[in-house]
């Protein structure tokens, strides 16, 4: 996370002990950590040893921080991978569901298309048949008409001929007349044939026009459905491409060969993460133990240093005392020598001057008094020394106590610094989560307005599209009306022709509908007779109805109830589809007796009639016995 | 909109809610202008917080923000609003590119007891001005939005809040591995608003 205000910098370490003047003045240089400080030379000075330990601590701190950074980055990566994996899984599931949905839709559309084509073909065949029937009738009628005409003409001609036979006297004129009449007859016959041909060709033309219209309509329908098919194909291709890309991604993941391996891999990764966090925890604990030990060692070292310093001081003090005592001793020896010299001189003087005994006595007294004074001074000095020593010991003890307090405070400071680092890292993590947008679902929910601008934009776009379509259709309608008005007489002729055709077709439709109604009533009568007969003969009331499965395929369902059934629940259900009959499970067939019979007769022996016959006999026996 | 007394510094809960919702309205407009979500010519300049601020003239956006602000005021007065997020998404792919996050801390004592607080209006305006300047200068470090974008607003509320009409529950529309920049915050002593923008790592920056 990038923050505008960087976290506050930690103060320089206060581990520099104030009582270690030698360490205070040394340079804190970075040295590569060596595993065996004990292998260092024995003459290594305490300063280098302290530097070595300090370096070790800093290196370990660096290693620890690097390790923690690497761990945090690894954890983040794992989280990213987890989230990516979850999104991939979700997308995969969605894609699969969409693909299945599209497949189902595609199959359904294909089936509908096939069914529509079949219906079209049936309708066309029916229409063709009807048209052929009409054509034949029409031909017969025309033939009969033409026959009638010919007969009539023949009769006329025969009458004429018979009239002409009375006039057999006329010779060539009558022959010519006959020939003329015969020619006329032939011409009439030829004309009749031509008329028939024209009529048939006209009918053919009309049939062809109708067929052309039908074909055009079919073509339009097929063209309308083609883009849908293309869209389905495109979406199928897209889904297949997506699926292949997902499969490639899956193949890129090491240790995963198929989608089923992904949860296993994920579980393995989670276990690894858990193990690594446990190891990290152990390493942290060990690290902390080491830190504590290091701190203890440092404090001991500091104590040792202070003690060494104190000892040095003591040594210096004792040296100074010794010097002082030596000085005193030298002074005393000097005085003694002086006194000795004086005494010798006195003795000389005594030898020389016996009469000066009184003066010598006073000298001796003076010397004795000076000696006593000196002794007194010495005693005073000894007492002061003793007092000084006591003061020193008291100060030393105070210093010790202060040192201990200082060490405790230093330990507290370190622990607080560690706590502060941990809290700062927690704060950074929480801030990053906050910035990322995470929230607690127990306390918070996320809402958004429904009437977003995108929806409005989409609605506006659809409204505009509909408006343009409406405008176009209005223009087309205007053009058609203009054309109609321009066409004039041709238009009225066409209209009358069309309206005549329409009335004809309507009459045909009315007759066909009446026929259909008649067929239906007849069929209903016959089928009820058939059903009653089946019930009487086979002992089962059969109800047939059409159902549609979830994939859109229509199936016929038969519900059978035995006439010897003791309750309305005793019903058998069968499903019939393209020649195959299957029994459906229900409460009645799940009873142990019935299910046993189903198992034996239907599943093993594959005979439904045997099952129903056996059931009828058993029901009859039960009825008669009861 | 602080209630004026002789001291002119007292702020009530309603006043604070009005300040915050007004701030959000202007901030949203500024973000939409600076990030190029709507064309520049659809904005008009007005004076607010001592700065020239840009407001959209698109009727749809205006009514959307107005309806939003009225609901936000209601939630702020009830102390039920935790966060407002303005999300900028790609129009083509619906991928979330930026999240402007306004976190709200409400003084619960004010909501429960109806007490008021004291703070100088000038001080609040100065703090809001700083945030507006930062939003305007954010284009220097935010990645360019080269494609057509749309925006949406999410409200993080308490769990027990009744979902109003024309609002639905939504996913938080997060960005994976975002870059985050924390902006200044402002405080009315009743509502404290922290601003943060998180954005999708630009591919060019990652190279």
From TrEMBL, chain A:
Gene3D superfamilies linked: 1.20.5.170, 3.30.457.60, 6.10.250.90
Database matches in SUPFAM superfamilies: Mitotic arrest deficient-like 1, Mad1 (SSF75704)
Compartments (UniProt record): Nucleus
GO biological process: attachment of mitotic spindle microtubules to kinetochore; cell division; mitotic spindle assembly checkpoint signaling
Highest taxon, organism lineage: Eukaryota
Principal localisation: nucleus
Keywords: Cell cycle, Cell division, Coiled coil, Mitosis, Nucleus
GO CC annotation terms, alphabetical: kinetochore; mitotic spindle; nuclear envelope
Stretches the record annotates as Disordered: 1-28
Coiled coil: 171-249, 280-352, 389-522
Similarity section: Belongs to the MAD1 family.
Name of the protein described by the UniProt record: Mitotic spindle checkpoint protein MAD1
Classification of source organism: Eukaryota, Viridiplantae, Streptophyta, Embryophyta, Tracheophyta
TrEMBL record, chain B:
Subcellular location(s) of the protein: Nucleus
InterPro entries in the cross-refs: HORMA_dom, HORMA_dom_sf, Mad2-like
Domain of life: Eukaryota
UniProt-recorded name of the protein: Mitotic spindle checkpoint protein MAD2
Cellular component, GO annotation: cytoplasm; kinetochore; nucleoplasm
GO terms for biological process, alphabetical: cell division; mitotic spindle assembly checkpoint signaling
Role summary: Required for the execution of the mitotic checkpoint which monitors the process of kinetochore-spindle attachment and delays the onset of anaphase when this process is not complete. It inhibits the activity of the anaphase promoting complex by sequestering CDC20 until all chromosomes are aligned at the metaphase plate.
Keywords: Cell cycle, Cell division, Mitosis, Nucleus
Record-linked SUPFAM superfamilies: The spindle assembly checkpoint protein mad2
Family: Belongs to the MAD2 family.
Predominant subcellular localization, coarse grouping: nucleus
